[in-house]
Known about the structure:
By secondary structure, the chain is mostly beta strands. The protein has one domain. The chain has one helix at 21-27; strands at residues 10-13, 17-20, 31-36, 42-47, 49-56, 59-64, 74-81, 87-97, 100-107, 121-129. The strands form 3 sheets. Strands 4-3-10-7 form a 4-stranded antiparallel β-sheet, with no helix packed on it. A 4-stranded antiparallel β-sheet has the order 5-6-9-8, with no helix packed on it. Strands 1-2 form a two-stranded antiparallel sheet. A hairpin with a 3-residue loop joins strand 1 and strand 2. It starts with 9 loop residues before the first strand and ends with a strand.
Amino acid sequence: MANGKIKADTLEHSTAGSLDTKFVVNGSAKVWLNLNGTGTIAVRDSFNVSGVVDNGTGNYTTSFTSSFDDANYSHAHTNISQDNQFSQTNNTNFVQAAGSIQQRNGYWSGVSGENGSSGDSLYFYIQEFGDLA
């Protein structure tokens, strides 16, 4: 049985219009994660995630199944602590590599430059955009 290819520059839906395939290839998240980071961490759902390591309070490393070309991909995140306070990704312990990303979450009161104390995230979400290797 031979393998085939489908080549298309445009995708068209019967009622929703058409879309250039470059938006599908270049504009789609290559990694996303929905994690409960409290207690024993639990991945609720994910795409292109091979594992998550709990490095300590509020500090997680997410490894990717398929790596990016390099560490210059775009990272977006949202964190909500277990007491429903918004938290931030802190500069300390933030390491972005082609095959993984590590970040530490801290409580944030809105003061510019504040690092805050570390805190586990009840809702920890990441999205990564870029070119896969």
